[in-house]
Amino acid sequence: MTRAPNGSGRRRRILVTHTQIAQSAVDLLNDHDIDVFFSPPYDPSDVVAARAAELRIDAMMVRQGRITDEVIGASPGLKVIVKHGVGVDNIDLAAAEARGIPVLRSMGSNSRAVAEHAIALALMLVKEIQPLNAAVKGGGWPKPTFIGKDFQGATLGLVGYGGIGRETARMAEALGMEVVVHDPYAPEAAEADGFATAADLEAMLPALDILSLHCPLTSATRDLIDARRLAMMKRTAVIVNTARGGIIDEAALADALRAGAIAGAALDSFATEPPAADNPLWELPTLVATPHIGGVTAGSSRAMAEIAARHIISVLDGNPPDERALARPADLAA
């Protein structure tokens, strides 16, 4: 357990479920009479709960690990939980609501960063960078037989059109792609930006060259991309997931990649994190994996921490939580 560098004896305390946040956010919290403590990422929930109880924390900033009912109930003075980011599927929202503790998200803080990562992963897949890299390093030279694919005119389907989906759509359009959006909760937003929309996901899938996921993990989106829907896609199509791992049925994805039912997939998030070392996806050369870092850039990390810090300060100062940032169990609990 580590205390922030210049934190000492302040009136209020928060626990961050990571080893660090941007120093500017630590300074902001310290300036508002708040000491900052850190708990290593992915520590067991009972360990995090014990730290929260020992410190008698007033607030929690969540980066990684499971925030269970045990953690939420550990400190009687806990008044607010804020996510260092936007995905809250690792927080027991129902338990927080039952205790009257608001859960807030750092909305808009990492939209550009995640969109950039989604486009980078799509580029890797469509341009077949990974197999070409392996071939050349292995002594091959596939130039005489290789014919690449174009981004110009390719159709990108987005599931979800929040801040990240919007940024991804703009970048894809700039690269010459046709963009179609499936978001049953905000179709008018995509249409207002000039993008085609699809009310029916299954009607959209067969036309796609790239499927990119940007929706939250909810009871409605868990295993949204399953074996049946994977079978609807072109054999030349690829999937990018920079949202939440549970949105894709990973066993079905492994089967589809193994059978060549789709051309490739790139995942930045997984149903269990970190994934098991023997995950069957690792055997597949058409799978690209990154460790859930799409939103982790210098700029976005600073923005996430500062937004989260401001939410904490506001609530601890007695203000109502920001309605726009609230995570409600009825909307988001998976």
From TrEMBL:
Domain D-isomer specific 2-hydroxyacid dehydrogenase NAD-binding: residue ranges: 119-294
Residue ranges of domain D-isomer specific 2-hydroxyacid dehydrogenase catalytic in the record: 15-323
Signal peptide positions on this chain: none
Superkingdom of origin: Bacteria
Pfam families tied to this protein: 2-Hacid_dh, 2-Hacid_dh_C
Keywords assigned: NAD, Oxidoreductase
CDD domains: PGDH_4 (cd12173)
Sample GO molecular function, one term: oxidoreductase activity, acting on the CH-OH group of donors, NAD or NADP as acceptor
InterPro entries per UniProt: D-2-hydroxyacid_DH, D-isomer_2_OHA_DH_cat_dom, D-isomer_DH_CS, D-isomer_DH_NAD-bd, NAD(P)-bd_dom_sf
SUPFAM superfamilies (alphabetical): Formate/glycerate dehydrogenase catalytic domain-like (SSF52283), NAD(P)-binding Rossmann-fold domains (SSF51735)
Family note: Belongs to the D-isomer specific 2-hydroxyacid dehydrogenase family.
Identification of the protein by name: D-3-phosphoglycerate dehydrogenase
Organism lineage: Bacteria, Pseudomonadati, Pseudomonadota, Alphaproteobacteria, Rhodobacterales
